[in-house]
């Protein structure tokens, strides 16, 4: 089974500001501010990928296709979650589906479709939501499985809130440390996420196997 997550509407702001990054990195000049803003965005995206979380409110689209990538190992790791390729596609219509990003604020739409045809948008009475769990879950109701479908797409809104004050402090610190690391190691090889950053993030990392028992 093929699975992708894309950003429909990006966050309006970053969890921390360039000014705070300047203080953290002890930078007392402004001529690198454009570059610092880029590193902040890159650091935030890297942290989101590592966590499997959306930090600032944003709209995401998750597509699962019936066709699996060729020659993949039976357990394919995606960002912060693993999707079992051996799971029958039909199980999507029988068991709760765990959304791959958290925290989820709302599900905007769910649609199913076939190759070369327009998607069918499901009505809200064709599925149930559980937004209190982490990750959030969707259950498709009986009858949806009879619709022609080679793929399913779920568009949802996720994030801790509209600004950085809602993001846990350890995650904010991890972004500052990651952005500073990227700024200070420009052009260097081996730009892996520092262990100190990971240590701040581990308690918040999301794991999901794509579906869950009731």
TrEMBL record:
CDD domains tied to this protein: gp6
Domain of life, source organism: Bacteria
Family annotation (InterPro entries): Phage_CHP, Phage_gp6-like_head-tail, Phage_HK97_gp6-like
Protein name, UniProt field: Phage gp6-like head-tail connector protein
Organism per entry: Novacetimonas maltaceti
């Amino acid at each position: 089974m093929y699975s992708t997550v894309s950003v429909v509407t990006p966050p309006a702001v970053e969890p921390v500001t360039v000014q705070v990054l300047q203080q953290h990195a002890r930078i007392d000049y402004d001529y690198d501010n454009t570059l610092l803003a880029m590193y902040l965005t890159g650091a935030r995206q890297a942290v989101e990928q590592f966590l499997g979380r959306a930090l600032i409110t944003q709209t995401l689209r998750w597509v699962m296709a019936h066709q699996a990538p060729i020659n993949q190992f039976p357990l394919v790791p995606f960002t912060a979650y693993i999707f079992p390729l051996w799971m029958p596609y039909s199980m999507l219509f029988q068991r709760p589906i765990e959304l791959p990003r958290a925290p989820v604020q709302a599900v905007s739409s769910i649609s199913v479709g076939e190759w070369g045809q327009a998607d069918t948008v499901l009505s809200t009475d064709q599925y149930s939501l559980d937004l209190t769990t982490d990750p959030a879950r969707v259950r498709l109701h009986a009858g949806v499985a009879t619709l022609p479908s080679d793929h399913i797409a779920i568009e949802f809104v996720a994030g801790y809130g509209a600004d950085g004050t809602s993001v846990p402090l350890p995650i904010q610190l991890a972004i500052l440390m990651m952005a500073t690391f990227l700024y200070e190691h420009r052009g260097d090889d081996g730009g892996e996420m520092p262990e100190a950053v990971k240590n701040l993030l581990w308690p918040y990392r999301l794991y999901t196997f794509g579906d869950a028992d009731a």
